[in-house]
Amino acid sequence: MNREEAYSLLKKHLKTKNLIKHSLAVEAVMQRLARHFGEDEEKWGLAGLLHDIDYDRTKDDPGRHSLEGAELLAEQGLPGDVVYAVKVHNEAHGLPRKTLMDKALYSIDPLTGLIVAAALIKPEKKLSAIDVDFLKKKFGEKSFARGANREIIAACSEMGLELDEFLGLGLEAMQGINKEMGL
């Protein structure tokens, strides 16, 4: 499946604009981390783009989220490692994160929410208005962007990344798609 086909599939299953933007953000950061680690950017991007494909159907049943998505992606013929990364990004299942791609998707998912929230509290409401120091400060404020699970973001250490570096790579990737993000 190429990126265009994946995006069409995503839009068929996800109708919420903010969820589509979230998927684009996760795709961009996954591609940036793939480049950082010398991995397959296209494959990692597909995992990021499609990771929440089942969310509209499963939002009221978190125990089903990512299982239905993984099933759908397997039926569509996506590679097994992409399907598994999508399945394990939901911590509710308690499945082991085996590969670098699994670990990246797991930590990137909440990171994008933290970055968006940080941009939105700036008067400019732009990704260009924030930097790593600002993100790190907001990361330390537990009452800020409560949905962005700090423990999961900090699991970037499983990939051998320091928090500052992870925040920087994520911010850089999202700034690169600021127009698509509307930020």
TrEMBL record:
Domain of life: Bacteria
A Pfam family recorded for this sequence: HD
Xref: Gene3D superfamilies: Hypothetical protein af1432
Domain HD/PDEase: 15-123
Protein name as catalogued: HDIG domain-containing protein
Organism for this UniProt entry: Desulfoscipio geothermicus DSM 3669
Taxonomic placement: Bacteria, Bacillati, Bacillota, Clostridia, Eubacteriales
